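[audit] Reproducing an earlier prediction to check determinism. Same input, same settings, fresh worker. If the tokens differ from the archived copy the diff job will pick it up downstream; this log only records the rerun itself.
[audit] input (85 residues):
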Amino acid sequence: MIIAITGKKNSLRPFEEQLELIAKGSPDMILVRDKNADDVDYLEFAKKCKEICMKYHVAMSADTHLTVAKELGVYHIQVPFDFFV
């Protein structure tokens, strides 16, 4: 299984362009991360990512933002080990 993990700060190209190139490579899933975003910013970021993932039939996973994942219908969620402690 190949899972690509996003990171806007680490992108060598404009982020959406980079994400599209990754999605074209057909990973099994793209994990959408933005550690510094609040739910409002993450929602806008994740919407763009979901559009690209859907275009290339790649599963998407949200990182920690449970309410955003639910709103967007994202069923894969990554949380840190101590998230619920």
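[audit] rerun output stored. Observation attached for the diff report: The first strand starts at residue 3 and ends at 5.
[audit] end
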